[in-house]
Amino acid sequence: MRRTAEPEPIDNRLFVLVLQHPQEKREVLATAVATCAALRRASLVVGLSWPNLSRALGRPADAGQWAALYLGSARPAGFGLEREIVVLDRAGMPTADQDAMLRGLEGVVMLDGSWSEAKTLWWRNPWLLRLRRLVLNPRHRSRFGRVRREPRREALSTLEAAALLLKHLDASPTVEAALLDRLDRLIAEARPDRPAQARKAARSNL
After folding, report:
1. What is the DSSP letter of 146?
2. Which of the residues 30, 78, 149, 204 has an alpha carbon 20 to 30 A from that of 183?
3. CB 202 within 8 Å of CB 33
4. Taking phi first (over 0 means left), then psi (-120 to 50 degrees means alpha), and beta for anything else, what does residue 29 get?
5. Helix segments in the chain, DSSP class H
6. Domain boundaries, the chain
7. Nearest 5°: phi and psi at 89?
8. pTM
């Protein structure tokens, strides 16, 4: 049987850098690899710590032009904002001019692993504190919930989070649709007869 050809990578503007916890490589349903394969400007690096953004990225980078998807205690739904992406200040509160803080970004760093693994990556890489801090406030729950339970409403798979970020920061709904189509195919290919995978609790690819 002939395999369906993989679609061409999406020509995204905003660079997506995924830092993956080594344990997450063992997850059958992890989406970081699929995310980076789908995007023309993306990179996946596996490890626990890097001395700075440039070393993680593998090329010089201005931290002032980058953002990080934050995994702290902030609950974006509690801010009363209708935005799907919220920029936080160092105190964990929304910044005054959200649109200004989102302009001029070159790239965004995403942390891939379970909730606890992602937190480990955050605290072992203090240079992340120099980046603009983003949290997601999605209108819909993760599609991944069908095969892998998420700990919070705003917890999305890495692929879904990238789709939401690029929808707004690349101003391209077609990017979101293309990425979510790939996620739907991954979910459809997942074997529902593997209950051990379905029972894995409180894991998030963010």
Report:
1. G
2. 78
3. no
4. alpha
5. 32-38, 53-57, 98-102, 115-124, 158-169, 173-189, 195-198
6. 15-73+82-191
7. -90, -175
8. 0.80
